[in-house]
Amino acid sequence: MSATMDTESTYSGYSHYSGHSKKAHRQGRDRHKSPRSKDGSRSEKSVTIQAPPAEPLLGNDASRTEEGQDDNWGETTTAITGTSEHSISQEDIARISKDLEDSVGLDCKRYLGLTVAAVLGLLVFLTPVAFILLPQILWRDALEPCGTVCEGLFISVAFKLLILLIGTWALFFRQPKADIPRVFVFRALLLVLIFLFVFSYWLFYGVRILDSKDTNYQGIVQYAVSLVDALLFIHYLAIVLLELRQLQPVFAVKVVRSTDGESRYYSLGHLSIQRAALVVLENYYRDFTVYNPSLLTASKSRAAKHMAGLKVYNVDGPGNNVSGQSRAMIAAAARRRDSSHNELYYEEADHERRVRKRRARLVVAVEEAFTHIKRLQAEEEQKAPGEMMDPREAAQAIFPSMARALQKYLRTTRQQQYHSMESILQHLAFCITNNMTPKAFLERYLSAGPTLQYDRDRWFSKQWTLVSEEAVTSGLQDGVVFVLKCLDFSLVVNVKKIPFIKLSEEFIDPKSHKFVLRLQSETSV
């Protein structure tokens, strides 16, 4: 009795030999001869959507067939352009539904905070004006006349309120860049402080002025001026807490992308964990190269290829311990791993060779296309001014001469999903309009650029999840680790405090640098 376990199959268990060994051998051969049916059943798990415009220049399946293509690919292949197929997974559908559910709650929270801040700000600016106007409306005849000092206070209140209005607009009324999970503690404390401050002023005003109908109008105006002065000091406090406190670097954070290990270092001041997460995400889109999952499939396919074909035979029957089979597979995998570094070396060398060759072809094709553009521009200058070629038309005219070389290079470097034909034409027209060189045009495609460089729909993640053992409203501390997760990858942030540096001064006497050079006047004859 024997059991055969094939790593390419999807079942496990034991199969018993019988007298019909030929029939079993024929069934196994038929199973290995029909891999298409297996792929067809596997493809039913994905949903395919026909997308009209803004498709990538190359299909997403180009990276799977790249290894089997020779350098003359395209001359013997018929390509059909115009439409492309994009696949969407179940995770994408779940993410879309989750975004739709969370958008309602986020919008309500955002508008609620803006409404409270706007109502409180309106109350702050109307309170000094109300303090001055209410006595004039309620007991105007009983008020003492306002002298020169009182009228000068009117000008002081007006200008102070104008300065306060401009400062409040610059500090608070900004378009929000993100929705944070918890309230901003310092901002909430300032709002509470302002509310208590204005409420106490109204309470004192109602008890000592409105009830008694104070006739000293200059004292009332002076009371309003003191309120405006106190509001200006609160505004200065807000600037210190919200802006100046975080400017001095205190912590050094290391940000690592979980998939490919790309990392960056940033210096941060006194911030809460959620605000530090926002700073990290803003810098991520600017500094990190775009996330390309196609570059990670090569190592996975190589590991699967090494494990494929390993077979373990159980000659003692189904009752034997299965741990022996595991040890056998581990030993076989270890023996294959000893020689896998040679395969990896030659694979990477061959890939680098193809990249260099196709890069050279692309550079030559683009230089020839730009030379053709200069020749066309020289011909257009001799024509009438109304017959000048538009940059978009010029880009469409020279694009076919470089399209094949660019297509092959993007497929080899697995960048085809980030560059659509429309985006390439727009970039080419932009380079022609600004009289840029071929090297400036190729800069976007020869190396992976920052995330913001590419189309927003291809990299932007609407939902980030902050995972932290500490409260997200607490400040950064030495050794704090938090994770920012999106659908495809995560950013691991490790916080380290900048060490205290002690400098000492050493005085060097200027006279210690002086020396005397004595030369002997006697010479040998």
UniProtKB/TrEMBL annotation:
Pfam families: Strabismus (PF06638)
Keyword list, A-Z: Cell membrane, Membrane, Transmembrane, Transmembrane helix
GO cellular component terms, A-Z: plasma membrane
Main localization of the protein described in the UniProt heading: membrane
Entries under InterPro entries matching the protein: VANGL
Keyword Disulfide bond included in the entry's annotation: no
Biased composition (Basic and acidic residues): 36-45
Transmembrane segments: 111-133, 153-172, 184-204, 224-244
Top-level taxon: Eukaryota
Membrane topology note: Multi-pass membrane protein
Annotated region described as Disordered, given as residue ranges: 1-86
Polar residues biased stretches: 1-10, 74-86
Localization in the cell: Cell membrane
Matches recorded under PANTHER family: VANG-LIKE PROTEIN
Family classification: Belongs to the Vang family.
Protein name: VANG1 protein
Organism placement in taxonomy: Eukaryota, Metazoa, Chordata, Craniata, Vertebrata
